[in-house]
Every structure is written in C-alpha cells, then in structure tokens.
C-alpha cells in the first residue's frame, strides 16, 4: 500500500544526497541545510505520531530544525554548478526536439488519472493507495514516472536524475523552500482567525453595502496577500474567509464559483510581481544566472497590471450576473 510518507522518505533521500555532495565539496552550510531538511522530511510521520501520543519532544526537535534552517540560510551563497558543455546540450536538444515536453506533460496527466481512478484500485482486495491525499500521491508517482521516462529518452544513468536535482537545489538555495513555507503560512493564518480580523478591518474602512468597494477590497486584497506570501493558494483562504464569503457571497449574493475562479486568477497577478514567489520569479533568474535577480519580475509587470484591471472588471460584471 502506497502512502504519502513513502514519497516523503524518497524526497528525504534525495535531499540527503544533495547534502552529501555539498559536504564532499566542503560547502558546509549547504550540506547542513539539505541534511536538516532531509531529516525533517524523513522523520515527519514519526514526529506526528509521537505528538499525537502526547510526546512533545520530537515536535520540539523539529521546531529546532526549522530554526536551524533559517540560520543556515543566511550562510548559503549561490554558486555556479558545473553542467554539460553547451555544445552537448544543444546537440541533445536538437536530437530530442519536441519530445522534451513528454516528461513534463506526463506529470499533470498521470496526477489526474490517479486522482480520478486511484481510489478504485486494489491488489488482493487491499487498496493500492493508503490514507492521505490522492493528489499528492498522484503527483509523486507522476514525478517518478516522468523522471524514468526522461532518463530513458536521454539514455542517462539513474544517478543522473539525482545529480541534476541536486544541481537545481543548489542553484535555488534556500528559496526552494519558500512555496512550501508560504503555503503553510496561509493555513496558519486561516486557522488563527486572520480572515475574521480582515473582515472587521474591511468593514470599518469601506462601505460594506457598496458592491464595487467590496469587490475592489477582495481583488486588491488577494493581490496584496499574494505579494506578501508569494502564493495565491495561501492568500485565497484568508481573503475568501474574511471578505469573499461574508461580504460578497452572503451579503451581496455573488456566485461562489465565479468569484473563486476570478479571485484566484487575480491573486496570480500578485505572483507575477513578488520575489516571494521564488519558484516562478527567482528560480529562472538563478538558473539563467542573470545579473539582476528581479529581471523576471520587471518583465512581468506590464502583464500583471492590465490583467489585474481586467480581472476586477470581470469579477464585478460576471459574479453577480447569474
């Protein structure tokens, strides 16, 4: 039976490999960072079980590990990691052509298939997938299958995937954790009542009976929280719980599906404009070794602003028309 923690263990092993490679190159801060992170991923399930059993020590140690990651991040420096010669990479790209997209396209396809049909799969009467998110399990399986397909296409050794993964991790550095941490922060904000506090602030600052004012507060709030958190998925529960649900849906009768879809897209406008969205905006600059780390953001601004205005107009027009 496949469970989510099996893939966390695999990810922990890859992180441990990245730490070992850095240790051999005497990059001690990088080695310690990936090593601590590998321990957190590998021991996460054990920490959860111990906490549920009333033993607080493992969770406290995990908290110390998170603090250690923050301290180690200040010591990490982006350095050029050797890769295949340019002539070899160009020759490989010309040989493979559009087949290069096959592994990338397999990931969403296999993920959707697992989500749709994985719950019905069984071996000897036992479910193939255990408790946990089928989406996460499907994404993990899809990633592994896509890696195998990519290795078969380039006729590479199995260790090639781990070596390239390590090179990508070191190119990103601590920023590789930002999406994970910021998404978690959104859940913490929602659980701690930040949404209700925002609703109270919005109601005191704007006329809540004016539909246009509330739409602007919701849309611009999605952008602002996304800029702060770097992740529209983290901003969505906060702004929807605080403004979207009580003021737009319940008070003004907005269509939940339309409001949610356009609201999320509005949050993505903030993604285009913030360095906190490291996987979208900092990683490409790091991989391309651009002199300006914010070059991607500067290029996206002319798209983000008009798209934001169009989304606000569509939200006001469509969410109340059906």
Automatic annotation (TrEMBL):
<feature type="transmembrane region" description="Helical">
    <location>
        <begin position="30"/>
        <end position="50"/>
    </location>
</feature>
<feature type="transmembrane region" description="Helical">
    <location>
        <begin position="212"/>
        <end position="236"/>
    </location>
</feature>
<keyword id="KW-0812">Transmembrane</keyword>
<protein>
    <submittedName>
        <fullName>DUF979 domain-containing protein</fullName>
    </submittedName>
</protein>
<keyword id="KW-1133">Transmembrane helix</keyword>
<feature type="transmembrane region" description="Helical">
    <location>
        <begin position="56"/>
        <end position="74"/>
    </location>
</feature>
<dbReference type="Pfam" id="PF06166">
    <property type="entry name" value="DUF979"/>
</dbReference>
<dbReference type="InterPro" id="IPR009323">
    <property type="entry name" value="DUF979"/>
</dbReference>
<keyword id="KW-0472">Membrane</keyword>
<feature type="transmembrane region" description="Helical">
    <location>
        <begin position="297"/>
        <end position="319"/>
    </location>
</feature>
<feature type="transmembrane region" description="Helical">
    <location>
        <begin position="100"/>
        <end position="123"/>
    </location>
</feature>
<feature type="transmembrane region" description="Helical">
    <location>
        <begin position="257"/>
        <end position="277"/>
    </location>
</feature>
<feature type="transmembrane region" description="Helical">
    <location>
        <begin position="6"/>
        <end position="23"/>
    </location>
</feature>
<feature type="transmembrane region" description="Helical">
    <location>
        <begin position="175"/>
        <end position="206"/>
    </location>
</feature>
<feature type="transmembrane region" description="Helical">
    <location>
        <begin position="135"/>
        <end position="154"/>
    </location>
</feature>
């Amino acid at each position: 039976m496949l469970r989510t923690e099996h893939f966390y263990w695999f990810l922990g092993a890859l992180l441990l490999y990245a730490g070992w490679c850095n240790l051999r190159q005497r990059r001690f801060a990088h080695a310690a960072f990936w090593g601590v992170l590998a321990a957190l991923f590998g021991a996460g399930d054990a920490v959860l079980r111990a906490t549920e059993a009333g033993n607080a020590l493992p969770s406290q140690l995990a908290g110390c590990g998170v603090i250690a990651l923050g301290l180690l991040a200040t010591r990490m420096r982006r350095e050029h990691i050797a890769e295949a010669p340019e002539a070899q990479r160009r020759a490989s790209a010309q040989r493979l052509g559009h087949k290069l997209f096959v592994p990338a396209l397999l990931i969403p396809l296999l993920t959707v298939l697992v989500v749709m049909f994985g719950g019905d799969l069984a071996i000897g009467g036992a479910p193939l997938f255990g408790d946990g998110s089928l989406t996460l399990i499907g994404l993990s399986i899809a990633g592994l299958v896509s890696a195998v397909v990519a290795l078969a296409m380039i006729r590479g050794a199995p260790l090639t995937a781990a070596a390239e993964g390590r090179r990508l991790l070191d190119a990103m550095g601590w920023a590789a954790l930002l999406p994970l941490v910021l998404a978690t922060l959104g859940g913490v904000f929602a659980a701690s009542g930040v949404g209700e506090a925002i609703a109270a602030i919005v109601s005191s600052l704007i006329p809540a009976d004016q539909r246009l004012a509330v739409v602007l507060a919701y849309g611009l709030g999605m952008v602002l929280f996304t800029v702060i958190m770097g992740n529209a998925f983290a901003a969505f529960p906060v702004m929807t719980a605080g403004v979207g649900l009580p003021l737009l849906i319940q008070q003004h009768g907005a269509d939940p599906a339309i409001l949610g879809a356009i609201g999320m897209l509005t949050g993505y406008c903030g993604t285009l404009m913030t360095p906190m969205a490291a996987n979208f905006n900092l990683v490409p600059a790091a991989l391309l070794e651009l002199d300006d780390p914010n070059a991607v953001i500067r290029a996206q601004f002319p798209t983000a602003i008009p798209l934001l205005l169009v989304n606000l107009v569509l939200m006001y027009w469509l969410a109340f028309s059906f």
